[in-house]
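Notebook p. 47: complex prediction with EPU.
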Amino acid sequence: MSSLPTCSLQYDVSLQALNTFGVAARAAMLARVSDIGDLQALLSQKHFANLPRLILGGGSNILFTRDFDGLVLLPEFRGMAITHEDGDRVHVRAGAGESWDALVRWSLAQGLCGLENLALIPGHVGAAPIQNIGAYGVEFAEVCASVEIHDIALGTTRLLSREQCGFAYRQSIFKTPEAANWIVTAVDIALTRQARLRLDYAGLREQLHAQDITTPTATEVADAVTQLRLRKLPNPALIGNAGSFFKNPIVTNTVAKQLQLQHPALPAWPMPDGQKKLSAAWLIESCGFKGLRDGDAGVSSQHALVLVNHGAASGAQLWALAQRIQAGVQQQFGVQLLPEPMVI
Ligand code: EPU
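Predicted complex, structure tokens below:
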């Protein structure tokens, strides 16, 4: 077995600092990847090629309930640059290993608009297309021009158009078996120089109003989103968490109507296909789970949709709590909650 000069390979590595839940878990092997050639060279060795693989970005959307007995790949592809302009559309290429919020702030500093509502989302650029990150009325899908992937099995790199990415609410082709051998290396984002601000989210308008801002700039919107997130969501730098632990459940219009007859306060938003998206946070809070603590595993008292690690919770304890919440919501409302982060 030979290690490679630039694809730094480590054995028996702690993942605790590499997941924002801060749970203790270990990886049998871990390689930081900043060069596709190095990765291919590593995987051309049979021993490595046959190992279970896990691609880890900022670790902000994953829960380890056990050690990972395989090879963890940490993409470290760097770079943020304007590649070309097409009228008012300005294309930005960003490497998968860049911090998402750093990209948002960098784009605003270039005078580019489009990412302001997505400020302060934890994680790396490469994770943005995987779960189609979204907040305050905007999803990654809306700014995505294409995603560059490398197919480890074929040894080829190619671009997927936005349509090929199959984006939907917290969903994309990257979560399907078709993508099993893909690693996202970069994204191409289409932004604009002319601001087209998206202020349809009531909480965002209220935040701007509270700051006495009537005609905001894109940077002021990003600042308002940052303030909102800091106030409404537990900060992973201070308390271990992975943001929303469940997706907002999507149900038929008929089911939503029945539930709202019984629970008029239940928030529900129309989906493009006529179905309804329900507030998982409201369902969880109504079951009395908000602020609950079982050992060091807990439900945030700030936001019912966020599970938190008060200190030394294991991934298994957090997962047990998540399952208890799922069962409670299922029993009380007949609605199935699905986890948003990847559960290992
Ligand atoms: N609510 C409660 N209890 C709570 C919190 C919220 O009942 O403890 C109700 C309120 O009625 C509120 C509604 O839930 O009006 C919606 O809450 P919020 O605006 O915080 O949005 P969310 O649907 O809970 C989603 C995303 C967040 C994103 C926000 C803002 C998902 C799974 N989550 O949360 O994304 O920041 O909207 O756009 O779609 C993430 O994915 O990790 C994440 C934080």
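Notes: The CA atoms of residues 93 and 139 lie 18 Å apart. The longest helix spans residues 315-333.
Next step: compare against the earlier run before touching the bench.
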